[in-house]
Design goal:
Length: 276
């Protein structure tokens, strides 16, 4: 029988900044009732053991080959690999919380009960540099994201071709269609049972997979706003009727002034975050 939720924090280095430590401790405090895992490279095992002891051995460890943590491309490969999700088959859901994300309140059960396969902060056209006028088009960013283990493994265990949804506006014509097919095949296909992608893993899970797999469900962008903010947080705050979401990602990168106001406000009276 599976448990409901596992909290997963990826770490790849031994020196955490103050905001990163704040993120980890906030996760430990707000989600204290759940199993929390550190995911990281095998070379840092002794450091992770010491870190776990520092927090009363509340942190469990899942270690993977070092090469997955040497680059963004390696991290993307890990998060589209069967071996990663197979480590968490005792759980129904994984909440992935990178150390540049913050848990703002405990709504984990609420979001798990909605039954979605994947949820992340909705992304704007333009991704990290949203274009004007602002348009939300995809759910969502992986830095603070909820993932259904069974659905992810179902995708990864059945080889299939994924269409490149980012090329939908490519001009027509048979040459273009042929070129697009080749790009789709070489960029988003299985080779020797290993999934090969050339986009960030969250774009793959949030945009390409739902289009190819009818069982894989993501919420509409207007609902995902209440799950997490990333880029343009003040705009999302207005769309969410001036309510903070479950969590946020890259809060120091996007409009830190907004987050400095919010993280010291009465909206975070439960375990308030201290800004130094």
């Amino acid at each position: 029988m599976t448990s409901k939720q596992a909290i997963v924090v990826p770490l790849y280095k031994t020196e955490l900044t103050e905001p990163e430590l704040m993120s980890l401790e906030r996760t430990l405090n707000v989600l204290a009732e759940h199993d929390l895992f550190i995911v990281g490279p095998e070379r840092l095992q002794s450091y992770f053991v010491a870190l776990s002891k520092q927090y009363g051995e509340r942190l469990r460890l899942q270690l993977f080959s070092d090469h997955f943590f040497e680059s963004i491309a390696g991290y993307n490969r890990l998060l589209v690999s069967e071996q990663f999700y197979a480590r968490f088959t005792d759980y129904e859901y994984m909440l992935l919380v990178q150390t540049d994300a913050l848990v703002l309140k405990d709504e984990l059960a609420l979001w798990c009960n909605k039954g979605y396969s994947y949820i992340g902060a909705p992304m704007f056209k333009g991704f990290t540099t949203p274009v004007r006028p602002l348009t939300l088009f995809c759910v969502g960013n992986g830095g603070f994201s909820l993932r259904n283990i069974e659905d992810f493994l179902k995708v990864l265990r059945q080889p299939r071709l994924f269409k490149n949804k980012l090329m939908e506006d490519w001009p027509g014509g048979w040459i273009s269609i042929t070129y697009r097919y080749l790009i789709d095949y070489w960029s988003f296909s299985y080779k020797n049972t290993q999934l090969n992608i050339d986009v960030n893993e969250d774009v793959f899970w949030g945009l390409f997979v739902p289009a190819a797999c009818s069982f894989f469900k993501v919420p509409p962008v207007d609902e995902a706003i209440a799950f997490a903010f990333e880029a343009e947080p003040e705009h999302l705050y207005c769309l969410n009727e001036q309510r903070l979401p479950f969590g946020c990602h890259a809060w120091q990168r996007y409009d830190q002034g907004f987050w400095d106001r919010m993280l010291t406000s009465d909206q975070l009276h439960h375990l308030p975050i201290k800004i130094k």
